[in-house]
Task: structure prediction
Amino acid sequence: MADDLKKGLEGVLVAESDLSSIDGDAGRLIYRGYPIEALAAGASFEEVLYLLWYGHLPDEGELAAFTEAMAAERSVDPAILETVRSLADAGEEPMAALRTATSMLSATEPEGEADAEDLEASLRKGRRITAKIPTVLAAFERYRQGEEPLDPDPALGLAENFLYLFTGEQPDPVAAETFDQALILHADHGLNASTFTSMVIASTMADVYSAITGGIGALSGPLHGGANQDVMEVLIEIDESDLEPRNWVEQATEEGRRIPGFGHRVYNVKDPRAKILRERSAELAEEGDSKWYDITTTLEAYLTDEKGLPEKGIAPNVDFYSGSVYYQLGIPIDMYTPIFAMSRSGGWIAHVLEYQRDNRLIRPRARYTGPEEQAFVPLQER
Ligand code: COA
Result:
């Protein structure tokens, strides 16, 4: 029956989850009941990881122990860094390099961990992956700049340490705070395509490394995590064109062009994460160049009404403002999606663990539309 077919699984419930909830009409996102605005304003990325993985916000002692344990896991085996170097030298895309390196991380499990299969072991593996992804990405960037990677600094939080490893300089507090917030905003978002991919892999009882590697692959596409990079490329295109931003977007929509960073499968109004990132973009614009903020707000004003409701059917999603925020932080454009993965690995792991606690193999079906009966003709007679 045609009604049974939900293309793209739109609106299909496949699991129960305590992790995050999206109200697409109200533009509301919560992680375990906490509004994203409160977490972005008051928590660190490590606190949010703890919340997602352990089910409650940590107290001071729990957070200190967790942060210390995460920081102790940051270093990456030299053999893996060598592979990262050769991928950078070969001009590989950073997202593909991250996918390869994440898969390799399983080869450097500590003694006795490789075969451990219980949920506690999966969480330890997940924690290690999340701690090491920033090191891998920063090393990739350093190699392609012709530099050697730096050693992680355990005294710095995850966001700040990443910026330090990436740029080779101690980040200023505004940059570190903005980046930490961006990581919080991207950490989880229901059963988006990459999270669902991780869950499908985990539902076969495959290991966490496979699930996260698969999540990275799913995130890389332009309809999902790749959009933040596309946004910045469009903003640069507008800046370099002869058209005013308003005329550009008018023309683009008339041509039926898809505007990256707009539209969402679940939100019918502006994504709450975009609201927060727009504020950060405004702050960065005050400190430096306001060009990017001005272009983004002009596009938004054209495509939505004054209440932020989508006038032309689409409103900004998280990627619309994350692109220009990262740009203003001096991060190269092709690193935006890998940074998304750095954050979302937290959500993937949380969903994998939650799903495996009450696992059922995910195995949907397709409505067969091919021929029913064909007479087989041997190769030589075809
Ligand atoms: N620019 C212009 N029009 C858009 C659009 C965009 N970014 N996103 C959706 N639309 C339009 C479609 O053309 C379609 O119009 P139609 O009904 O007249 O044909 C309608 O909105 C529905 O689009 P559809 O692609 O069916 O929605 P979806 O739920 O499958 O897609 C996205 C959701 C995210 C894939 C889609 O909005 C998109 O491609 N956005 C740009 C990429 C992006 O920002 N991705 C990051 C998401 S967090």
